[in-house]
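Limitations

Structures in this collection are predictions, not experimental determinations, and the ligand pose is part of the prediction. Treat each record accordingly. The example that follows, with phenylalanine as the small molecule, is included so readers can see exactly what is and is not provided: the inputs are given verbatim, and the output is the predicted complex.
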Amino acid sequence: MEALSLLVGQAEQAFAAARTPAELEDAKARFLGKSGAVTMQLKQLATLVADEKKTRGAEINAAKQQVEFLLGQRRQALADAELAQQLRTESLDVSLPGRHRGTGGLHPITLAAQRIEAIFGSMGFDVADGPEIETDWYSFTALNNPENHPARSMQDTFYVDVNDGEGRPLNLRPHTSPMQIRYAQAHARKHAGADPMPEIRVIAPGRTYRVDSDATHSPMFHQVEGLWVGENISFKDLKAVYLRFIRTFFETDDLRIRFRPSYFPFTEPSAEIDMMFGSGPLQGRWLEVSGSGQVHPQVIRNMGLDAERCIGFAFGSGVDRLAMLRYGVSDLRLFFEGDLRFLTQFK
Ligand code: PHE
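Predicted complex:
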């Protein structure tokens, strides 16, 4: 009896000392194997008489069961430890940022331009595109600019060292207004002889250039030109269209616009369009967003249209300005510095 509980204690120690399943199998053999300590005890039963054999046999079997139980426990403990170790080394740290391909995104000015196109598109406006290097005629003369108008001067307009064929240098268009002429000319040619001629309804977004650079002016900037010409298009249409546009662009009806008398050679009368938010951080401040006016009859003629029948309005708005207001950007130059910390915020 004594010897048996000693044996069980030895087995327990031997199992505990086994660090791996293989070591545990060795230990098992020493107790339960063919010539293991427990097996030897059973073999010795043969030397006993029947009565003793019975009680001794029961004792040995109980000890054997205990040893098997201890073995099972240790096996399980080793398996648990192994699994825990495996989990530790193969675990997935879900808090690590994933490795992904940089997908890029659209530039905020592009986003603003797309928004403008979608809104005017919904009001039946075509979208047109044209050259950024212009002739003197399209940038100025066709737009009724007097010969001595300051816009023509070297201080405002970038000139290209290439002759336009009529003795004047080409320019980097200082506004998108040349597109009024280009689009209307093409329209007049396309619909020559049609009576009445279909209306012109177009916007022309794009890059423009002026000799100017500070927090709110960049030598390269963006405008969107608008033109609606028909037989009976008036200033009230301009007001309605522009109000609808600006309220949709900023997603609020809590926004007013005003038309402030101004001067442009190509419109008469002319007005600056100012807008004012009814709430938010810019609440109560008039912000200039566009030039506008009724297209001058001389410009209508330069388009190749009948100034007695055709009338309409035009506007030219600053896209960058609209984007700054929409996204709350205070320095225009941020748009053009290519700093990803700024740009990725618009993805
Ligand atoms: N072209 C003008 C500018 O750049 C804006 C404008 C466009 C004004 C159309 C009236 C009509 O300031």
